[in-house]
Write a structure and sequence with these properties.
Chain B: Keywords: ATP-binding, Nucleotide-binding, Transport. The complex is a heterodimer of chains A (about 425) and B (about 250). Chain A is an alpha+beta fold. Helices cover about 55% and strands about 15% of the residues of chain A. Chain A has 2 domains: about 180 residues, no CATH class; about 120 residues, no CATH class. In chain A, strands 1, 2, 3, 4, 5, 6, 7, 8, 9, 10, 11 and 12 form a 12-stranded mixed β-sheet that branches. In chain A, α1 crosses α12. The radius of gyration of chain B is 19 Å and the shape is globular. The chains are: A alpha+beta (about 425), B alpha/beta (about 250).
Chain lengths: ~425, ~250
């Protein structure tokens, strides 16, 4: 019985839809002004969700380009932060070269190398890179060990990485990133050529393959704008430097175990009391992506807030226009009742009209959102997540039904005698 | 209020029996009252109207404005329900029906023709005629077929796809008549059907009513124009909410 009733109203559903579209087409300007709020609401949902998905994918790719088995260890928190470091953090002792070598001895660790950043010298000034009259202060300068090559983060495209002997005997050799090669050696191969770093001549032994990065990156933000030199040489360029960043790579399948072993080792070496938290941070690609995602959750909430304001405004507009429409069509409602429309037929007619109105707004918002996503795709690997259009359409149709309910109920309740008498 | 209740309770036994018996007439009204509450005052638009209409009759209801003829028409058409009294259409006691049941009676038993046609402006003539069948739940193909036949019956076969604003007044009224007839109602109820038409077109429409009557339809026309009423076979005159005169003229 319920099914038969459902089918019966299903028969007039298309009639109602057809009538609704005809009515909306007859009032093009009014209809389009009414749905602007809904359009903006849905557009915001689709646009921002594709933006977020794009940033998310880009960050994930970039972080994972450092290796999914990589473990990053530093005395300060790694990743995304917005607050100033606390006093406890500023007082933390440095991680050392020896810490890196000790970590390398752990059973579940495959590689562990220290990084000494010498982009700035001991007085905080930039160490300049010069060749043939060309100078740059934006090159990131790192001292590390030959084992870094085994970490699988960088690939040599030409030449070779420096070797342990060159580190031990402090040879002035370097491996340059692709951007450095493009800037300073635009013609011919840089291998065997010299480049001046901090006033000393270095011989280029290898060029790194270009790494893809999020947002393109310019100058010092460019991951390819980098020069690696042997650790010992770096120490000589910046004698007081002892602030080491450590990159460790776990053996396949031992990531969690390696993390635990490193944590234990460093707590012992740094003499952290058992009841105190770590005075260093240890992160993996996955944990950094997680950090980023919790940050993005805030953006997502803001998105929902913005779009729901749009949808609410749209909903109120729809209610207003539907009330006008009911008043304007009082005689029509009276006529329909006179020829046999029941209350629920009138209710359905106006509900479907309201839902068609907002549903069209939703579709327009969807198309604009997709177009926005295409524009974003020029900068980011953006895509529209499947849930976004579904939520967009359901929300817009739902807004029409919710805000159309009262006008439709008003129409359904009209007394046919009075409605027919209405001028 | 109290007196009204007492009156209803003390009904002679014989009369009670008579009320319960379902009348054989197509339309049967027994002591119909319609009372409006205007602030403190009660206004009686109808004060005990009783009459029968047999199948196939052609009746005109006339009366000056304020006489209660519009109220009576609304009750005949089941747009309104009497405050007191009983009303049967086709043996069905409609005076006690709820909203949805009344909508069904209006759909199946009554075909309305209005003074101002009341067609949907954005729909074609065909779609306008289909409308009662939509509410009756008739499938689309059958609906279309029946609507076409109804339009042919009023000689509008060549105007089916026209919208009301592309039709003359007389054509619009004929579309409205086709809409009223399409669901084969028991009565055709017309409220001043020529009120918005010129004399020539009025005559054309009245000829159509006459033809429909000859084909066996029961027609009730509400009007204040004596020459329109004169075309009917029976004239019921209403004054001050009562039947003043009920006479067979042909």
């Amino acid at each position: 019985m319920v099914r038969i009733k459902f089918l019966r109203s299903g028969g007039s559903f298309y009639e109602n839809l057809w009538m609704a579209i005809a009515t909306l087409r007859a009032h093009k300007l009014r209809s389009s002004l009414t749905i602007i709020g809904v359009v903006i609401g849905v557009w915001t949902v689709i646009g921002i969700s594709s933006l977020i998905s794009g940033i998310d994918l880009a960050v994930k790719r970039e972080v994972e380009s450092f290796g999914i088995r990589s473990i990053f260890i530093y005395k300060f928190d790694i990743g995304f932060r917005t607050s100033e470091p606390t006093r406890e953090e500023r007082m933390r002792p440095n991680l050392t070269y020896e810490d890196a070598l000790a970590i390398a001895q752990l059973p579940s660790v495959e590689v562990s190398v220290p990084f000494l950043n010498i982009t700035n010298n001991r007085w905080g000034q930039k160490i300049l890179v010069t060749r043939a009259g060309k100078t740059s202060a934006a090159v990131r300068l790192e001292g590390t060990l030959p084992d870094y090559e085994r970490a699988g983060v960088e690939t040599i495209s030409e030449g070779r990485f420096f070797v342990q002997y060159e580190n031990d005997s402090s040879q002035p050799v370097c491996v340059i990133g692709s951007s450095v090669a493009d800037n300073f050696f635009p013609y011919g191969s840089p291998i065997g050529e010299t480049i001046e770093i901090g006033g000393r001549e270095f011989r280029v032994v290898g060029v790194l393959a270009k790494r893809e990065q999020f947002g393109g990156g310019e100058g010092s933000d460019d991951v390819n704008n980098v020069i690696y030199v042997p650790y010992n040489v770096a120490r000589k360029l910046k004698p007081n430097a002892d602030d080491v960043f450590i990159l460790a790579v776990a053996r396949a399948g031992y990531l969690d175990q390696a993390k635990d072993e490193i944590t234990d080792l460093l707590r012992r070496r740094r003499q952290v009391p058992f009841d105190q938290p770590n005075n260093f941070s240890i992160e993996t690609a996955e944990s950094i992506v997680q950090q980023f995602r919790s940050l993005m959750a805030g953006v997502a909430i803001a998105m929902v807030a913005i779009s729901s304001v749009g949808l609410m405004v749209g909903g109120i507009g729809v209610m207003n226009i539907m009330l006008v429409s009911v008043t304007e069509r009082t005689r029509e409602i009276g006529t329909r009742k006179a020829i046999g429309a029941r209350r629920r037929d009138i209710l359905w007619q106006f509900l479907i009209e309201a839902a068609t109105l907002t549903g069209m707004g939703g579709l327009i918002g969807l198309l604009l959102g997709w177009a926005t996503s295409f524009v974003i795709r020029l900068f980011l690997p953006s895509y529209v997540p499947l849930w976004a259009p579904i939520v967009g359409v359901i929300a817009s149709v739902g807004i029409g039904i919710i805000f159309g309910l009262w006008p439709a109920w008003k129409a359904a309740r009209l007394d046919p005698v009075e409605a027919l008498r209405y001028e | 209020m109290l007196t009204a209740q007492v009156q209803e309770e003390i009904v002679p036994y014989g009369e009670l029996l008579a009320q319960e018996a379902v009348p054989a007439a197509l339309i049967s009204m027994r002591d119909i009252w319609r009372t409006y509450q205007m602030g403190e005052e009660q206004v009686h638009a109808l004060r005990g109207v009783s009459f029968d209409v047999q199948k196939g009759e052609y009746v005109a209801i006339i009366g000056p404005s304020g006489s209660g003829k519009s109220t009576l028409m609304n009750i005949i058409g089941c747009l309104d329900t009497p405050t007191r009294g009983r009303y049967w259409i086709n043996g069905k006691l409609v005076s006690e029906m709820d909203d949805d049941e009344l909508a069904r009676i209006r759909n199946k038993e009554v075909g309305f023709v209005f003074q101002t046609f009341n067609l949907l402006p954005r729909a074609t003539a065909l779609h306008n005629v289909e409308l009662p069948l939509i509410y009756a739940g008739v499938p689309a193909a059958e609906r279309r077929e029946r609507a076409k036949r109804a339009l042919m019956a009023v000689d509008l076969a060549d105007r089916m796809m026209h919208k009301p604003n592309e039709l003359s007044g007389g054509q619009r009224q004929r579309v409205a008549i086709a809409r009223a007839l399409v669901n084969h109602p028991s009565i055709l109820l017309a409220d001043e059907p020529t009120g918005a038409l010129d004399t020539a077109t009025s005559r054309e429409i009245m000829n159509l009513f006459e033809r429909l009557h000859e084909e066996g339809n029961t027609i009730i026309i509400v009007t204040h124009e004596p020459d329109i009423a004169a075309r009917a076979h029976r004239i019921i005159s209403i004054r001050d909410g009562r039947i003043e005169k009920d006479e067979r003229v042909k």
